[in-house]
């Protein structure tokens, strides 16, 4: 079987073969992923972002679907040759990220099937243009860290601890599980978010950066995932941590 590009961002249809991950995920987690046959593109620190999120892939890169990928100008020199070597078409964003909110959120949109969630007052112009060409349905929220805040479960299902996002998406027919805040590490700030703590390893298996079973809302999360025939895999046995989403890019054809 050949490798192919994942058509719908975050939702592979088969076992993934390549993923984008924070460069700080740790040796044990790297080994678990590589032992599953997943090659990793590790991020580079984006010097303009604050330390907690400087290596988070979802802050600087947006997989648009298939071969198309958009990258913040801050870090494009590092990523462009890596992605082009894999056959991706690289688009450069227009917004140069800066350290403080909301100047750091231009690329942190959340794509769920045919919907996109973000605070669209601050979305990068090149990204916005691309989303409109794809006729995606925009869901405007006040939370700018949209992808960090949302774990994508299916084309119309998600998990979040953000009540504002939850209230908006259900108006669009998205099945949203609202969970307790906290319980997820993000060193340097109070807590991380569920979206940044996970990503799919194949069509059925959602991998978590740490022990999701210790989360206050674990039973709810497990029940919700079973409803969509999804399984859980803990990628290490440490406390759950937000590393800015495991982003699958290639899968088995």
From TrEMBL:
Cited Pfam families: DUF6873
**Per the database record, which ranges form the DUF6873 domain?**
20-247
Name recorded for this polypeptide: DUF6873 domain-containing protein
